[in-house]
């Protein structure tokens, strides 16, 4: 039988590396970096069981957290208020709301309002899926102080301005479910058309009420309510000799801009009110090429004033864009939208939004082609929403339709800005 080697003797193995102070320290150090059960090399050593705390997660600077949160959708931020007190305080801070408004530039929605409800669609879903699912919103207006259909007349920074019976407005931010109603105006002499915008010079929001000509009264008073105050104040009357085609103006580049008609010539003019100076200016229109226009509307696309024009012989609508507000040389013809069907009498096309890849959300209004002047009934005004792809000239119908003017549509940018000042 062969003799045993030194390596076969377990006692020799144990004694060949006796524990020292250094090796013991090394073993203790290894315990701080591992988890589980540690068994000594020798059976004479006891089993040591160690339970360690999980490593702490790295913490981000609060400024970086604010930067990340400022780019998220409002719906997520409303949920994140429950994370901790510091997040709740941050998200509810008006300064953070302004930062979020600047950083979150792509969260646009289309709202469609009905008699007692409102449906909300993310704009991106409308351009990618014509069967996009709407979200039912809790409408802020109740029947107890509503007398008729209340149109959304304008939007600014996520706040929608809803006209109430021509004498008051409700300001509503559907993203955060907050609204406020302003004091009513005296309607003994005038009805009013309302507009809403932001004055960057004073960092305030203003509602503008323009008197509607009734009973032959040609004076058109204009009143302004600055959010944070509790009253209306009167400013200079609307320029004499003009009437508004649409008493609700468009907010663009720090102004409220109306399409008006000069009484003496029955020609269209564009009048703007500077919200900072509270003074009026006429905007020079583009050169339409000497044609006689039968339809003209104004709107806002890509934060610029735009015009939708149509002449008697046209089978298309021209969309003009003023790249620099007030500069007549900056007018460009952005698109020509061809007719896609029999639009009936006096069709009117308005672009509500243009995507980055040049898809255009259109609202098309027209009178019923079966209408006869002998009819005693009111005109049947049909309104339809379609998506026009300007790159390949194709159209897609959307399953959102207004019937007889009982619903309204508006594009708005979701925000944390509160209407309750």
TrEMBL record:
SUPFAM superfamilies assigned to the protein according to its UniProt record, in alphabetical order: F-box domain
Top-rank taxon: Eukaryota
Pfam family, one: F-box
Ranges of compositional bias, category Acidic residues: 1-11
InterPro entries recorded: F-box-assoc_dom_typ1 (IPR006527), F-box-assoc_interact_dom (IPR017451), F-box-like_dom_sf (IPR036047), F-box_dom (IPR001810), SCF_F-box_component (IPR050796)
Domain F-box span(s) in chain numbering: 54-100
Polar residues biased stretches: 17-28
Region (Disordered): 1-28
Gene3D superfamilies: 1.20.1280.50
NCBIfam families, A to Z: F_box_assoc_1 (TIGR01640)
Protein name: F-box domain-containing protein
Organism for this UniProt entry: Trifolium subterraneum (Subterranean clover)
Upper taxonomic lineage: Eukaryota, Viridiplantae, Streptophyta, Embryophyta, Tracheophyta
């Amino acid at each position: 039988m062969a003799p045993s080697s030194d390596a076969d003797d377990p006692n020799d193995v144990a004694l060949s590396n006796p524990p020292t102070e250094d090796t013991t320290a090394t073993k203790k150090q290894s315990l701080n970096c591992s988890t589980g059960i540690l068994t000594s090399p020798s059976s004479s050593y006891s089993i040591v069981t160690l339970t360690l705390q999980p490593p702490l997660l790295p913490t981000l600077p609060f400024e970086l957290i604010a930067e990340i949160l400022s780019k998220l959708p409002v719906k997520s931020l409303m949920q994140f208020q429950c994370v901790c007190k510091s997040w709740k305080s941050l998200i509810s801070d008006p300064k953070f709301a302004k930062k979020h408004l600047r950083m979150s530039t792509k969260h646009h929605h289309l709202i469609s309002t009905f008699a007692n409800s409102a449906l909300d669609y993310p704009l991106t879903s409308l351009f990618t899926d014509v069967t996009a699912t709407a979200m039912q919103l809790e409408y802020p207006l109740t029947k107890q102080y509503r007398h008729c259909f209340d149109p959304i007349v304008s939007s600014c920074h996520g706040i929608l301005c809803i006209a109430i019976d021509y004498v008051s407005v409700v300001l509503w931010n559907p993203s955060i479910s907050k609204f406020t109603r302003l004091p009513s105006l005296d309607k003994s002499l005038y009805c009013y058309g309302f507009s809403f915008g932001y004055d960057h010079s004073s960092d305030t929001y203003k509602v503008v009420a323009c008197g509607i000509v009734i009973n032959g009264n040609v004076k058109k008073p204009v009143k302004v309510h600055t959010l944070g105050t509790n009253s209306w104040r009167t400013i200079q009357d609307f320029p004499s000799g003009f009437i508004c085609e649409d008493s609700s103006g468009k907010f663009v580049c720090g102004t409220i801009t109306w399409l008006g008609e000069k009484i003496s010539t029955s020609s269209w003019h564009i009048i703007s009110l500077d919200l900072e100076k509270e003074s009026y200016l006429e905007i020079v229109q583009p050169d339409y090429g000497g044609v006689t226009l039968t339809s003209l509307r104004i709107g806002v696309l890509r934060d610029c004033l735009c015009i939708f024009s149509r002449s008697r012989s046209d089978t298309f609508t021209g969309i003009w864009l003023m790249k620099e507000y007030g500069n007549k040389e900056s007018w460009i013809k952005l698109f020509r939208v061809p007719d896609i069907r029999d639009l009936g009498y006096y069709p009117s096309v308005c672009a509500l939004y243009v995507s980055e890849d040049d898809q255009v959300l259109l609202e098309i209004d027209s009178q019923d082609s079966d209408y006869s002047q002998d009819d005693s009934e009111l005109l049947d005004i049909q309104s339809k929403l379609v998506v026009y792809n300007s790159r390949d000239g194709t159209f897609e119908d959307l399953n959102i339709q207004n019937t007889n003017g009982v619903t309204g549509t508006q594009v708005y940018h979701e925000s944390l800005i509160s209407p309750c000042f």
